């Protein structure tokens, strides 16, 4: 008999409630990962995310083997593969940590019903959010739509639980069911291999995630509030892909940050923003495609000019800070948060391209793109989302560079041609396109 732990976006051993529940059964424990790109509504991963997933799964498999267990890989709809694994492993229980996207919740709920009908113990745990989405509501029982009162309500709740320790040993079954070979999944780019910059910038996996958290808290957190908006300062945490893939739990981040003794209120509020995004997705599963503010359904987007979209994607807009950010994204799979806001504003409000096109590009190129934060932040910049920046707030990328990259260090690193005065000419006039965007917004307000 076996207890299966179904890993998803929680590729770690420390603070893993589903793993702890499986161990508490006293049965041999076997890890499982299902690459499910077929269940209705489940969004296939982008290219950068697939690269990260490959390496994080390799790390997790190695760590489970060191502890005495294994990770079985299967590909296909979870509704088919999990029951098959229950049979193959003679499992009495399947344990997982909860997901909050609409399609994923439907998959999990149906599987729980199916497994329990067969007499299999199927249990889910809270592990990926500090506060479950249905627990944080206004006095009237409604979800929050503005971040500040949302986060204030979270902070008034009982403190998040302490993280669970990593198990010393994980005894696996005597016989391991057949597993796919990770390399056969084709998660890594090969023709061409565009991931050289990702390999240089990142080491996926739980051990590297722990190291990064402790290095940030030891070296950079004291400067975080002062310099977090300066892309050349290098004081951001670098934890966004770690949290996205669950190599760290938010409970671990929360308690280690507080234990550091530093002033971490500003940093923890960014963890709160992540929570707010997931709570919003829980209530609005179509966040990646549908305006939260339905007035924006009438926004008069002009006919798409593919050449402008390509110039933005490739960092060839002629606007130094925008081009630097887009090239950093292509090279490393991430972009500084301040610059993310600038490039998003430029796409939506200067190029007048629908925010969904930007969300799709980030989904494909960010290693930290998840189903909540990516569309949530795009809608925030576009003005159509929860607690959104007003549409008339247009980030001027030249003024943003003067304020946050005053010595041009960031642009020099990622767009040296601009620093040398040899960059491409601007594809649009910033003043004219800002005026056009505001005129379009006025039409929405009148309409």
Automatic annotation (TrEMBL):
Pfam families: DNA_photolyase, FAD_binding_7
UniProt keyword list: Chromophore, FAD, Flavoprotein
UniProt-listed InterPro entries: Crypto/Photolyase_FAD-like_sf, Crypto/Photolyase_N_sf, Cryptochr/Photolyase_FAD-bd, Cryptochrome/DNA_photolyase_1, DNA_photolyase_1_CS_C, DNA_photolyase_N, Rossmann-like_a/b/a_fold
PROSITE patterns: DNA_PHOTOLYASES_1_1, DNA_PHOTOLYASES_1_2, PHR_CRY_ALPHA_BETA
CC cofactor: FAD
Photolyase/cryptochrome alpha/beta domain span: 1-130
Keyword Flavoprotein included in the entry's annotation: yes
Family per similarity comment: Belongs to the DNA photolyase family.
Protein's recorded name: Deoxyribodipyrimidine photo-lyase
């Amino acid at each position: 008999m076996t207890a299966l732990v179904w890993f998803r976006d929680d590729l770690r051993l420390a603070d893993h409630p589903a793993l702890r529940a499986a161990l508490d059964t006293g049965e041999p424990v076997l890890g499982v990962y299902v690459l499910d790109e077929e269940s209705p509504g489940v969004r296939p991963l982008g290219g950068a995310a697939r690269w990260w997933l490959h390496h994080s799964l390799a790390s997790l498999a190695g760590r489970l083997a060191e502890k005495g267990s294994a990770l079985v890989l299967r590909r296909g709809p979870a509704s088919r593969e999990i029951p098959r694994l229950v049979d193959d492993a003679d499992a009495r229980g399947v344990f997982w940590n909860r997901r909050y996207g609409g399609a994923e919740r439907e998959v999990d709920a149906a599987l729980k019903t199916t497994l329990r009908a067969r007499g299999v113990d199927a249990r889910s745990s809270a592990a990926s959010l500090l506060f479950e989405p249905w627990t944080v509501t206004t006095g009237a029982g409604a979800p929050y739509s503005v971040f500040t009162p949302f986060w204030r309500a979270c902070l008034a709740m009982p403190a998040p639980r302490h993280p669970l320790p990593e198990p010393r040993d994980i005894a696996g079954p005597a016989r391991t069911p057949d597993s796919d070979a990770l390399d056969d999944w084709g998660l890594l780019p090969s023709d061409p291999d565009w991931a050289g910059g990702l390999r240089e910038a990142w080491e996926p996996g739980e051990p590297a995630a722990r190291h990064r958290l402790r290095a940030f808290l030891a070296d950079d957190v004291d400067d975080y509030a002062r310099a977090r908006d300066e892309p050349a300062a290098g004081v951001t945490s670098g934890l966004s892909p770690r949290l996205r893939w669950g190599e760290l739990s938010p409970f671990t981040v929360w308690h280690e940050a507080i234990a550091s003794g530093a002033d971490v209120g500003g940093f923890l509020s960014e963890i709160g923003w992540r929570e707010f995004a997931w709570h919003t997705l829980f209530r609005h599963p179509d966040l990646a495609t549908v305006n939260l503010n339905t007035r924006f359904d009438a926004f008069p987007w002009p006919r798409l000019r593919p050449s402008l979209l390509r110039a933005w994607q490739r960092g060839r807009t002629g606007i130094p800070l925008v081009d630097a950010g887009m090239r950093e994204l292509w090279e490393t799979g991430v972009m500084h948060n301040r610059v993310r806001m600038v490039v998003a504003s430029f796409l939506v409000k200067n190029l007048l391209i629908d925010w969904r096109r930007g969300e799709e590009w980030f989904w494909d190129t960010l290693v930290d793109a998840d189903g909540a934060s990516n569309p949530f932040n795009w809608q925030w910049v576009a003005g159509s989302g929860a607690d959104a920046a007003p549409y008339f707030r247009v980030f001027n990328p030249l003024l943003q560079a003067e304020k946050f990259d005053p010595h041009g260090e960031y642009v020099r690193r990622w767009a040296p041609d601009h620093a040398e005065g040899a960059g491409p000419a601007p594809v649009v006039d910033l003043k004219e396109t800002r005026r056009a965007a505001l005129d379009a917004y006025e039409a929405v307000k009148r309409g």
